[in-house]
Amino acid sequence: MMPETKRLLFCANWKMQVAPGEAREFLTRFRAAYLPTPHRHTWFFPSAVSIEAVAGAIQGLPNARVGAQDVHWEPKGAFTGATSVPLAQAAGATAALIGHSERRRLFGETDADTARKVRAALSGGLVAVLCVGETLEQRERGQTTAVVARQLGAGVEGLSAAEFDRMVVAYEPVWAIGTGRNATPRDAATVHSGIRSALIDRGATNPWILYGGSVSQNNVAALLAEAEIEGVLVGGASLTPDGWAGICSTGA
Ligand code: PEP
User: Fold this and answer.
1) Which residues are catalytic?
2) Of 7, 43, 106, 125, which sits 20 to 30 A from 69 (CA to CA)?
3) Is there an atom of ligand 1 within 6 Å of 213 CB?
């Protein structure tokens, strides 16, 4: 059983879905179904066009944030299609996902890019949620630890202790995202443990580490029962308000 005081963070990654009106409707239904408690945090990562709608709809909801799914490292300029930290903030964002595997795989984002984005997010005042995780091929070659260490090392290079306090790391094995396959709670907890040690070695005091990859109402309790897993980053299962409220109420 997880102790009732364990902090828990539930992040919804809505990807390229949920228009502003749908987001407002979602939040009305979610808020009717979800009972907040002091140790639960629920953050939403909608498409940039829906950040403002979510920011309005979560007002007064305890421990809630809205964040961008990606930010550019430059504060402004000729970067068609990109969202800067100040633009995201102007829409109401207080957090940003950085280095999601879809950004890395589909948009060619490198470790150096994610490092610049983490810096930009933190220095601009956002909370950064850095995503790391190995592909199936890397896992089968026994490279999980090395890949996660490399992505993490690049992402947090040179951060101060105060900056670590505004960082969350999400371990998302790429082979588990959107596939219905997920890491066993024990396997995920083992990787989390390595991430925790690496972050503490670099100056973090109390790293907050999430698991992501095919999390559902069926498996979330077992994942969160692991002491090392203090939350989840969820794609598909965050798209229905009642289902998401159920996930966010796990252990209540
Ligand atoms: C994600 O997009 O970060 C994710 C974990 O997706 P899903 O929950 O659908 O696997």
Assistant:
1) 100, 172
2) 7
3) yes
DSSP 199-243: HHHTT-SS-EEEEESS--TTTHHHHHTSTT--EEEESGGGSSHHH
- Helix, strand, or coil here: 102? helix
Contacts for 75 with CB less than 8 Å, ≥ 6 apart: 84, 85, 86, 120, 124
pLDDT tens track for 158-185: 899 999 999 999 999 999 988 888 889 9
Whether 173 is in the pocket of ligand 1, judged by its Cβ within 6 Å, is: no
Q: Determine whether the shortest distance from the Cβ of 172 to ligand 1 is under 6 A.
A: yes
Q: Among 18, 177, 218, 220, which is best to mutate for testing ligand 1, by the most ligand atoms less than 8 A from CB?
A: 177
Distance of CA 238 to the CA centre of its chain: 12
- Which residues, 6+ apart, have CB-to-CB distance to 55 below 8 Å? 66, 91, 92, 93
Considering the entire predicted model, what is its pTM? 0.96
